[in-house]
Amino acid sequence: MHDWAYLRPLLRANDRKIVLLVLDGLGGMPMGPVGPTELEYANTPVMDALAADGTLGQTIPVAPGIAPGSGPAHLALFGYDPLHYTVGRGALAAAGVGLDLQPGDVVARGNFATLDAEGRIVDRRAGRIGTAEAAPLVERLNRIQLPGVEVTVRPVREYRFVLRLRGQGLNPDLDDTDPQQTGVPPRPVRARTPQAETTAALLNRWVAEAQRLLADQPKANGVLLRGFSTDPALPRFGDWFGLHAVAIAVYPMYKGVARLVGMDVLDFDGDTPADQFAAAARVWPEYDFFFIHIKKTDSKGEDGDFYGKAKIIEQVDRALPALLDLKPDVLIITGDHSTPAMLRSHSWHPVPFLLWAPQTARSDNQYRFGETACAQGGLGTFPAVQTMPLALAHAGRLKKFGA
Fold it and tell me: Quick count: other Cβ atoms within 10 Å of Cβ 246?
């Protein structure tokens, strides 16, 4: 467990700026026995120049061999040991859309899904229906009532929604209904402990009514629930690291994880990397830590779209000069986890990591930003939870330890 007690006496304030640019699911694999990964295939002259000036390495988000979810992987980058600080997907989704959590609430992330006539899952994401198409279906779900419980459903983005139950005696110790595969029916909500049996029964009743209300839909005729959770009451990021932090993200879940650790979340127009970098420029004097999240690298990886993922990486690279014009003192470019297009899923592979700090970084004779170069980089392979002390050190925000 990292509580950073040893770090607090070392913190010192200055005016240096740190940027953590996270390309979700950045790590990849070749599509065959040999060949480049998505990052290595992409044309990235700006990142390659940063790699030549900076230092490369690779991170382990949770532990070797463990494929992490996005929540624990981001917590690790923020300095929270994901094996100790567990946050359910539901809490992340709720925080992402500004749905407040109170002690005793139970929340879950939901997907609209496509079921066949026998109730088997055909598509876990309902054809990735758009937000406008999903919104009226969320309103249908808000009609469902449960005895003694206040039920709230909010749209998240595209096919995703969040479900919150508020009442007495609720317990989030429940198994997901999403089996993470097609060709099988959704699972029932099962209690992991006797204390959660009543909550499981209420949620199974809610799911049955949801299926009835959605039965006429060609795509979104089912629901899948995952990440049952409640407010995790995490320590504040600013208290731990002495930073005034802002998150610049498009997708609500990543706004959620930032809110849960106490970062400000910036509203802005647009959804491209250029839009996000422009948003950072507008608030540049107000903050000293900028978490900028790019989602579509992960989406393309999960879709098995090798070339699409490479194009998103190239889009980020083309926009990067605008971020560099702000003259960050420390720029870290990495991913939360790997999502190889070949596997169509999150994986356990180490994640490429680029540290650019022109005043302090030692060059390691690597000249391209890619998995092969990162495996040979000067930072080596290290736990992602050590990202924040590394960033603070290169920003001159840590004093000497000991006499």
Answer: 21
- Model confidence at 232, pLDDT cuts 50, 70, 90, reads confident
* The one-letter amino acid at 319: A
Burial class of residue 325 in the structure, from the number of CB atoms within 10 Å of its CB (0-12 exposed, 13-18 middle, 19+ buried)? exposed
Neighbour tally for 232: CB within 10 Å = 18
Residues 6+ apart with CB under 8 A from 403: none
Name the CATH architecture for the domain at 92-229: 2-Layer Sandwich (3.30)
Residues 6+ apart with CB under 8 A from 175: 187, 189, 190, 191, 192
Token couple for 258 = 């930032």
In 3-state terms, what secondary structure has residue 177?
coil
Q: Which residues, other chains included, contact 302 with Cβ-Cβ below 8 Å and sequence gap of 6+?
A: 25, 339, 344, 345
In the chain, residues under CATH classification 3.30.70 are 92-229
Give the pTM.
Answer: 0.84
Answer yes or no: CATH 3.40.50.10890 is held by domain 8-87+234-394.
no
Q: Which residues make up the CATH 3.40.720.10 domain(s) of the chain?
A: 8-87+234-394
- pLDDT for 357 equals 97
Beta strands 330-334 and 351-356, pairing class: antiparallel
Burial of 346 (0-12, 13-18, 19+ CB in 10 A): buried
